[in-house]
Amino acid sequence: xxxxxxxxxxxxxxxxxxxxxxxxxxxxxxxxxxxxxxxxxxxxxxxxxxxxxxxxxxxxxxxxxxxxxxxxxxxxxxxxxxxxxxxxxxxxxxxxxxxxxxxxxxxxxxxxxxxxxxxxxxxxxxxxxxxxxxxxxxxxxxxxxxxxxxxxxxxxxxxxxxxxxxxxxxxxxxxxxxxxxxxxxxxxxxxxxxxxxxxxxxxxxxxxxxxxxxxxxxxxxxxxxxxxxxxxxxxxxxxxxxxxxxxxxxxxxxxxxxxxxxxxxxxxxx
Length: 270
Ligand SMILES: Nc1ncnc2c1ncn2[C@@H]1O[C@H](COP(=O)(O)OP(=O)(O)OP(=O)(O)O)[C@@H](O)[C@H]1O
Prior knowledge:
There is one protein chain. The chain has a domain at 2-77 and 155-242: 3-Layer(aba) Sandwich (Rossmann fold), CATH 3.40.50.300. Helices cover 32% and strands 27% of the residues. It has nine helices and 13 strands. The strands form three sheets. Strands 6-7-8-3-9-10 form a six-stranded mixed beta sheet. A four-stranded antiparallel beta sheet has the order 2-1-4-5, with no helix packed on it. Strand 1 and strand 2 form a beta hairpin. The chain binds adenosine-5'-triphosphate. The site of adenosine-5'-triphosphate (ATP) has 13 residues, from helix 1. Residues 2-237 form the ABC transporter domain. Its EC number is 7.6.2.9. Pfam families: ABC_tran.
């Protein structure tokens, strides 16, 4: 489990990115931070692998305060997938992925074998392994980014708007692929997006944030849809405009979650 315990972050220039934030992220589930630009999502995410250290409070992983852990070691033990994949342009796809294994001390052969394996896991044809990133489509690059995050088989995977820069069709594909991977791999995923549909699709736990990392609501997609906590959330999730992909309907006395095609996707607990 990842736990934020009353943490805050004020940057050197005085910007308060996060005021006072507490939350538990259960293991082997996906938690999505969603909110408008600048609300502190990335800052919260980066506090899990100490790319950002909090100004106050603690982040714990399995009850250990990560401030007590070696920064480099911690960072290498956690997968990180960033926007636009962040691949090294002068390294071949295979080497971009294998590098993470090399950093953890694997031999060249071991690293490459594992990189091939994980490229296959994310659905990339092995013929692409020897290309350079610029010779791939945006969606393929993003898959490489996911492969790189997974190659060392970390328990925790941090994903910062990983599908933000691809077109909607490829984005749908990548989202479905991530759902499949999560069913297979069972990681603890922390995912950042500003897209509420993506948050509801991928999140077991969805955290809707206001400026300064203030939690407007946290819960399962079904719970948030059924009982939005006030006007900010209603407006953010689009209930006030009546165009939600998912919505709640009463059918035969039960409240069920229905997708945009009218198909029931879940029943709300009483
Ligand atoms: N290194 C930094 N120095 C100063 N201010 C920063 C720094 N990093 C982030 N901020 C500020 O902290 C606030 C929160 O930033 P953060 O990147 O966490 O937001 P976000 O919700 O991820 O935004 P976006 O969706 O635009 O990426 C913003 O006001 C941002 O300008």
